[in-house]
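Slide 14.
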Amino acid sequence: MYRVSTVDLRVFALRLSLILPPMAHPAVRVDALTHRYGDFQALDGVSFTVESGHLFGLLGPNGSGKTTLFRTLSTLIHPTSGRVEVFGHDPVTSPAAVRPLLGVIFQDPALDAELTVMENLTFHGSLYGLSGKLLADRIQELLGVFELADRAGDRISTLSGGQKRRVDLIRGLLHRPRLLLLDEPTTGLDPIARRTFWDVLHQHRRREGVTMIVATHLLDEAEACDTLALLSHGKLVATGSPAQMKARLGDEMLWIAAAEPDSLAREIASAFGFETRVVGNDIRVAGAAAIQQLPAIYERFGPAITSATVRKPSLEDVFMVLSGVKMNT
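Slide 15: predicted structure.
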């Protein structure tokens, strides 16, 4: 009698997932998620939904809760309260159902520097029950896609930072995950390596339809997302497409820098009736009328003004206005 091993079942499940139509659930649903580390509130009632096939961005400075959210999605920690679903599965009650659906790219590459590229990928593939021709073909396919076929026999320690990042990305994609989690994936890469990394990743996403969630504090990476969630001190500040978020602030914005921004903001609001918001040493003065009245503002408060800027809203402006803090990293 033939015995079915755990590895056989994993391989069968992986192959079956490639031919079955996607489930009707969204890729991720987060509902009132809260997490505490002792007295520290890392996440505070965060809720959002990620649609299947989307590139979803978590934008926020270090310490905003992005990594804690990723650890929850990837079954590494249990939330203090609230609920998470990954394609309809709860990471707390059904971690074994969630893990095969995930590919995770950490802030630092999860590779053994003394092993070759092929040895690393073969080892990681075996952790998902892949072996033999199925695994070898998948490795060769991805090495070709990510332009690393000629480095298969080289030790990881001999690769550049960008090449290591691409090998790590292949590691996370070997088992064809339905959801790819990228936690600050381009940390430490130069601009050219960052662009190359994202170019090949976007091509792969279009080809295989994988859903991606990227945690970042880099505005150009956030701009490329279909949908963004802005996080600040564990709270969800806003969600929407980059264009929708910037549209909330109008066509142009007036920012005034001052040595004493709090007092100047109050005086401008009192004298002109404009809504003001202080962020660091900057004052956002809302409304088209404020831009038109800039000469009058200078005439009245010129000595207290360090500089004034009129510009189209950026994602950094959106974050500053909605959270009240700057995107310091």
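Speaker note: The chain has two domains: 7-244, 250-312.
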